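Protocol step 6 of 9: fold each sequence in the batch and record its structure tokens directly after the sequence line. For illustration, a two-sequence batch is reproduced in full.

Sequence one:
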Amino acid sequence: MSDTPIPSPPTDPLDREQFWRDTVAAFATSGLSVRAFCAARGLPEKRFYTWRKALGLSPVGRPASPSDVPPARGFVPVRILADAAAEIVRPGVVVLRVPVTADPAHVVRLVAAIRGATC
């Protein structure tokens, strides 16, 4: 840890807001827990949480991972199964499972064929 003093929150409201924006940004890249980060900087945890929420920088309400985000329009979810097969799903139409070693040209033809299929 360096001997550089950590600045205290300023008293001017505009400077204070910038201080907390910078502090929350530093926390995001620190790799520390909130408790450890605040202790290292001599900041009250409660004040950190209050400012993070007030600035709209709280992770609460954000998706936990990219898999929680619905796929973009025009894309379909694809997952690789443990038995070395790829699964392509057209909801309500068909599920196509092919070995990952399948010839890509054959897979393209299969997908084109089921795209035009009607039940």
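Sequence two, same batch, same settings:
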Amino acid sequence: MDATRLTLVIAIVLVLAVAVGWVCCWLFLRLNRPSGLPHPQEPAEETVRRALDARDAAMLELGEMRRDLARQMAAKDSELEATMSGLGNARREAMEWRRAYEDLSGSTSGG
């Protein structure tokens, strides 16, 4: 027997072994299924329904999270605006105090 023939025989034997194994597995599961179990299609439908429910719940939660983050961002923006306004007022007041000090120190040293 040459190498080509040996390879073909081994390939055919492997394909047959897989086919026989698959048939035996199918037959075993078919014969040993408890009568109370639903048909194989029903769990898939239930799984799809659960997945859709989970997706819907996740989308609702995502919407709530987005609204919450938008609310927090608006609050932070208003807080930042108030802080920047206060900082601007403080700078203007500091400049006024500096000018007043310079005017006082200039008038006392010159007079």
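Proceed to step 7 once all outputs are recorded. Observation for sequence two: The chain has two domains: 1-32, 61-111.
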